[in-house]
Write a structure and sequence with these properties.
alpha/beta; Transcription Regulator spoIIAA; 5-stranded mixed beta sheet; 28% helix; 32% strand
């Protein structure tokens, strides 16, 4: 039996990167890349919440760099949509990646949320 202490190997979990950019005084682009799941969705929720508080604010969420979307990530997007409806803000999804588009289609969320192929296509 060894008397050496066990070594720990830090485990890196999934990551998500959220970048914010103002396109106009009333229009924001939120670019998301990485995995949007149980461990990372709160980061997106925290970024979206203050943006959706203003009436007539447009928040465009670019999902082209999202490699994985689970039910928690989907719930985050639906919650943001509901918040936008309550506050009078507008929320649109931009260029969802293939895995994201599949999840949106399978769940019917693409029929509820506005989805556009590019930022320039969103009103």
């Amino acid at each position: 039996m060894s008397s050496e202490p066990p070594t720990s190997h830090p485990r890196r979990g999934p990551t998500v990167d959220v970048q914010l950019r103002a396109l106009a005084p009333d229009r924001r682009l939120v670019t998301v890349s990485g995995q949007l799941d149980l461990h990372t969705a709160q980061g997106l929720a925290d970024a979206l919440e203050p943006l959706l508080g203003g009436r007539d604010q447009a928040v465009l969420v670019d999902l082209s760099g999202v490699t994985f979307l689970d039910s928690t990530g989907l719930t985050c997007l639906i919650t943001a949509y509901r918040t936008a409806r309550t506050t009078g803000a507008r929320l649109a999804l931009i260029a969802p990646s293939a895995p994201v588009r599949t999840m949106l289609e399978l769940t019917g969320v693409d029929q509820v949320l506005d989805v556009y192929p590019a930022v320039d296509a969103a009103p």
